[in-house]
Each structure stands twice: as C-alpha cells, then as structure tokens.
Amino acid sequence: MVEETESLSPQRFPLLFLALITFMVCTHLFRDAAQALVENLLLSLVAITSAVTLSSENKLRKLVLVLAAVFIMSRWAGSYYGSETIKVLSLFLMLLYFTYIVKGVLQFLLKSRVVDSNVILGCVAAYLMIGILISFGFALLLEFDPSAFSVPASEMDYTDILYFTMITFTTIGYGDITPTASMTRMLAYFSGIIGQMYMGIITAIIV
After folding, report:
1. pLDDT tens digit string along 63-107?
2. For the purposes of burial, counting CB atoms within 10 Å of the CB of 5, is it exposed (0-12), middle (13-18) or buried (19 or more)?
3. How far does Cα 157 stand from its chain's mean position?
4. CA–CA separation, 203 vs 110, rounded Å?
5. Count of CB atoms situated within 10 Å of the CB of 93
6. How far apart are CA 96 and CA 85, in angstroms?
C-alpha cells in the first residue's frame, strides 16, 4: 500500500494556494445576499483542488474524491435546508476532511528533501488550511452556543468567524471580537499557540 505522503502530486501546491487565497479574499468581498453562495462555491473549489493535490495514486484518489464529494454535499445541504442537525453534521464533516488534508500535506512537506517554490507554497497553503480548519471549529461551537462570542454586530456570520480565527491564529488580536464561552476561549488560545508553533517548528524543520 502506498503511503499518503508518497501519493501527493508534487507540482499542484500552487493550484491549492490560489484556491485558498481566492476563498479568503472573496469571502470578505461578498457580504450580501450572495454571501452563502460565494462561500459554498469557493469552499467547493478548495475541496476539489485539495483532493487533486493530495491524490495521485488510484486507490487514494478515489478515497479523497469521495471525502471531498461528501464534504461539498454536506456544506450545500447545511446552507440551504436550514436544519440545525444538518449544519452541525456539515461542520463536523468539514473538520474531518480538512484535518485529513492538512495531515497529508504536512507529512509531505516534512519529508521533502528539496525546498523549491512548490514546497514553499505548500507551507503557506498548509498554514492557511489550518486556519480555516480552526474556523470550522469555532463555527461548530457557535452552533451549540450562539452567545459564545461578543461582537459589535447583532449577529456573527462565517466571515466574522474566519476573520477572528486568522487574527487569533497570527496572534494579532485586535479585540473587536472576543470569545466569552469557556470552549471558545480555550480554542482561541490553542489557535494562537498552534500558529506560533507552525511558524517556529515546521518552517525551521523544512529550512
């Protein structure tokens, strides 16, 4: 059986990097009636590009593509059917999928013997994907406790969650959005620790 780290397509990290940047930029540009549609389309794009990046062997490709398909369907269903159960299930599946993808990318990066532009973009892509993964964790906690954050606006959407996550992940911490529940506070400080550990440890190992 071929290991996951040997099954990555080595020249496709630029594609995943572009998909992630597009998702993070466009998510904040469209904050109107089309917001849910844009988020779902771009998350689907990220899922497809990550599946293409991670798989090059037939058996693994089928597994990753099936996981990506389940992830995409659950995301669309959670957005448009309005059922709280479906929303929670879709967020849980997103956590599982992104955890699997991040694990595969990190294993590949840590075993790379040549650091080129593809590996560097892979490092950045993994960093962004960890941030998005943590944002799904915050979104899941918010489903269970709508008062888990103190925000200036009356309602917190995914754009706010992603913004808070990346600000915390990079340890900037403006303070305009603050976690109030114990679980969101715990995930917030773990987010900051993980962000610093990534920059200090993963980058150092690769260099």
Report:
1. 677 777 777 787 777 666 767 788 888 888 888 888 988 988 888
2. middle
3. 16
4. 9
5. 19
6. 17
